[in-house]
Design goal:
Layout (H helix, E strand, L loop, with lengths): L4 H15 L7 E6 H19 L3 E2 L2 E7 L2 E16 L2 E5 L5 E19 L3 E23 L5 E11 L2 E7 L3 H40 L3 E3 L4 E4 L7 E2 L3 E6 L2 E4 L23 E6 H13 L5 E3 L11 H7 L1 H6 L6 E7 L4 E5 L2 E15 L5 E20 L2 E18 L10 H20 L3 E2 L6 E11 L2 E10 L10
Antiparallel strand pairs: 1-13, 1-15, 2-4, 3-4, 4-6, 5-6, 6-7, 7-8, 7-9, 10-11, 11-14, 12-13, 15-24, 16-17, 17-19, 18-19, 19-20, 20-21, 21-22, 23-24
Helix pairs in contact: 1-2, 1-3
């Protein structure tokens, strides 16, 4: 009979999983009551699909019957119907509360008994008016991950109705009477321990999840919890570290995350807030990896050949230095970590860099002509595709100053239009190709965002979204 309890426990475990969705954090996640209600609906549907396919091992036992024992064997046990008219999740402030009310299920089976006579046949067990109330809490253990515990559990077994078909009908009522007793006993004594064991399995599963996700070859993001989930009456908040590191090198960012608060909204199931610190840490990671450095040469320029003749037409001093036209190479470098600024409806990136212009001589050596300092003001537009946050960079304006020159002094403003064109046609497309790969969003398996909406406010980017769970049906179910 212990195996039958697996059916009653499955709903609780599935719904508890849905309730766990959720220094200062770099990313905040909020699950609203609307999200919890959707998770409840999904949990009920998954439960019905899975439970109705469950098959259990044969059960054997004996019960005292008058002056002797009745030995029984129950085989080919399977669920034929599940009814869950009332199931709810609430957030009382001290945890996640699940209440299953008036649940019932019908089980079909083959049976045989042996006493002074033998009998066998088909049977049906109908368990009704089952009530389960459970409260789940979370806490951080010494190892860092969040531990899950069942702090309160109460089960009311309800009614058990058994119908048997066989030859010796006069024994059925006696057998049913004694068969009800072990069913009741197992429901009362094993329901909550089985639920607790299931939660421990969930706890182990969540601990095994890798919160560090690869972005690309250069960087990875840490979405592990930075503190306990905060449970309120209308929502659950989770604080995630939300820090981007150079791949394989979890060096702390030199910037500290500022505190921020998600606005009180409930129209969507989920809210994900990415702080300015999250994007600043990504800037640090890619700056450390040298991702903002780029070389443009005659072979790689898409639209025209870069040579000293072009520069001579803009800066006469170059013509005096280089009589014969030589190919030119541009070495662009970010001299400081790009600075991110999030304001209302504005995602700005300030880039401080330099561009060194070098002539490539006939012997393949290079000669530096001059170096310019560049201050570029850019903006990023955001979108979501394939569960990733993607960006598109736009150049707003640049400012130039002369850092060093081997061709003498010249007016750097003469190069502004030319370099702006180079940036627009070569550098920006290259940056957008990288940005199009996107940042993976924190997510659960088989859960995708639907109708996401992005809002940029001061200090963070807010994504409001509903969720869709795709349930993959199992081909076979074994116990």
């Amino acid at each position: 009979m212990r195996k039958m309890l697996k059916i009653c426990c499955s709903l609780l475990l599935l719904l508890l999983l849905s309730g766990l969705l959720s220094a200062n954090p770099g990313v905040k996640v909020r699950m609203t009551q609307k999200g919890l209600e959707y998770a409840r609906e999904v949990g009920l549907e998954i439960l019905k699909q899975n439970v109705e396919k469950e098959h259990f091992p044969d059960l054997t036992g004996h019960e005292k019957f008058g002056l002797g024992n009745v030995k029984y064997n129950i085989s080919r046990i399977h669920v034929t119907a599940v009814e869950l008219p009332s199931a709810s999740i609430s957030l009382p402030g001290s945890g996640i509360k699940l209440v299953i009310g008036n649940a019932s299920l019908t089980i079909g089976m083959n049976w045989n008994i042996r006493t002074w006579i033998k009998d066998s046949g088909r049977g049906t067990v109908h368990i009704s008016k089952v009530f389960v109330t459970a409260i789940l809490s979370t806490h951080l253990d010494n190892a860092g991950p969040t531990a899950i515990a069942l702090t309160s559990c109460r089960t009311t077994p309800g009614d058990v109705d058994i119908k048997l078909n066989g030859k010796t009908g006069f024994l059925h009522n006696f057998f049913i009477k004694y068969l009800k007793k072990p069913i009741h006993r197992n429901l009362v004594t094993n329901s909550c321990p089985n639920i607790r064991a299931g939660i421990q399995l969930i706890d182990g599963y969540l601990r095994s999840l890798n919160a560090v996700m690869q972005i690309d070859d250069l960087a990875e993001v840490d979405y592990s919890l930075s503190g306990l989930p905060a449970v309120f009456q209308q929502f659950i908040d989770l604080d995630l570290k939300g820090v981007v590191f150079p791949a394989g090198n979890h060096t702390d960012s030199p910037y500290m995350a500022a505190s921020f608060t998600i606005p009180d909204q409930s129209e969507s199931m989920l809210y994900l807030a990415f702080s300015e610190h999250f994007f600043q840490s990504s800037s640090f990671a890619y700056y450390t990896a040298g991702a903002f450095n780029m070389t443009i040469a005659e072979q790689t320029c898409s639209y025209f050949n870069i040579n000293t003749e072009i520069f001579s037409s803009i800066i006469p001093e170059v013509a005096k230095y280089s009589i014969a036209p030589y190919p030119v190479m541009l070495k662009l470098m970010s001299t400081e970590m790009p600075t991110i600024s999030l304001q209302q409806d504005s995602f700005m990136v300030e880039i401080q860099g330099s561009v060194e212009v070098l002539a490539i001589l006939p012997d393949s050596t290079t000669q530096s002509l001059f170096t310019l300092n560049i201050a570029a003001n850019t903006s990023i537009s955001l979108n979501i595709f394939d569960q990733k946050l993607m960006g598109s960079l736009c150049l707003n304006r640049i400012q130039l100053s002369l850092d060093h020159s081997n061709v003498g002094s010249f007016e750097v403003l003469l190069l502004e239009n030319f370099l702006s064109y180079i940036l627009q046609t070569e550098v920006i497309p290259s940056a957008n190709a990288k940005l199009s790969k996107g940042f993976p969003l924190p997510n659960l398996a088989n859960v995708t965002s639907t109708r996401p909406h992005i809002t940029i406010v001061q200090g963070y980017v807010l994504i409001s979204t509903d969720a869709h769970y795709k349930h993959y049906r199992r081909r076979e179910t074994t116990c």
